[in-house]
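Researcher: We plan to redesign the surface later, but first we want a full-length starting point. Tokens attached.
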């Protein structure tokens, strides 16, 4: 796998791929790669494209007191894992490379969407996400970019940004990859202690309970939330920030659940914040 640390190196690799007539598929990540990321790489490759993955822990999307400094990082391990999959170029810029003036005066914001759910608990988070993704899209100029359903609100915001700001890129959203017991893979899972790791499965159990009740004929969204919350409450070490049934395009609270309604959840386990979601079927 080729490496690029600077914009200039990236540009030159992109130019090379374009001259060779390749399409470009892009997968932005914050690294500390796991199978969830690797499946996004596979999916990018399936677009018959030159695959560019970025690894950048974006300071702009972390609030004060959040875990920017302590976010798990391992550049060598990441390069090794990317090498095992169909990644053609790994873009690993330093903070100064993407923010030469120390930050960004101009932000991409999405009022009404970025302040819902996670945005309520992480003010400014999605402004940072949208801004860095917009920058990366300008630098990489991908034909297609792949994101994970695990970060449902992020994927929705990026789809909206691309439509509303006329980015010429297709957004492909890949299903959530889970551990055998159902816990969604996340770079932050390494922080879970042994008992926290066992408790963390409660998020998935709660989502499954809502799905079962829905399949059993419960279509009142408020009832589904209650059922899921009751399952979460069985594991007091898991402290929910929110658990909501929402409309998939607007994130408005659903009143009547239907196929496509999303149950979204964020919870703190020990010191670690975990999110997950399930699209009702
Ligand atoms: P991150 O490195 O956590 O910022 O994630 C980078 C990309 O990987 C995002 O599009 C995430 O939605 C996606 N991702 C993270 N975890 C998973 C997972 N368990 N399954 C599928 N995609 C994931």
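Model: Full-length starting sequence:
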């Amino acid at each position: 796998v080729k490496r690029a640390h600077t914009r200039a190196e990236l540009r030159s690799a992109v130019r090379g791929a374009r001259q060779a007539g390749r399409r470009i598929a892009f997968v932005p990540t914050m690294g500390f790669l796991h199978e969830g990321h690797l499946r996004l790489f596979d999916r990018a490759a399936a677009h018959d494209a030159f695959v560019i993955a970025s690894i950048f822990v974006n300071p702009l999307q972390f609030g004060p007191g959040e875990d920017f400094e302590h976010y798990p990082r391992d550049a060598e391990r990441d390069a090794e894992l990317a090498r095992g999959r169909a990644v053609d170029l790994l873009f690993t810029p330093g903070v100064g490379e993407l923010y030469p003036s120390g930050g960004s005066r101009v932000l991409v914001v999405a009022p009404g969407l970025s302040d819902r759910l996670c945005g309520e608990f992480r003010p400014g988070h999605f402004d940072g996400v949208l801004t860095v993704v917009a920058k990366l899209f300008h630098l990489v100029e991908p034909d297609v970019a792949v994101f994970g359903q695990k970060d449902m609100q992020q994927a929705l915001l990026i789809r909206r940004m691309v439509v509303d700001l006329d980015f010429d890129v297709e957004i492909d959203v890949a299903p959530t990859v889970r551990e055998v017991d159902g816990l969604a893979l996340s770079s932050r899972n390494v922080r879970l202690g042994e008992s926290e790791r066992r408790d963390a499965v409660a998020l998935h159990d709660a989502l499954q309970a809502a799905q079962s009740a829905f399949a059993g004929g419960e279509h009142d969204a408020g009832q589904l939330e209650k059922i899921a919350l009751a399952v979460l409450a069985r594991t007091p070490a898991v402290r929910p920030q929110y658990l909501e049934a929402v409309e998939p395009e607007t994130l408005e609270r659903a009143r009547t659940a239907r196929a496509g309604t999303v149950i979204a959840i964020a919870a703190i386990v020990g010191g670690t914040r975990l999110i997950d979601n399930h699209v009702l079927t």
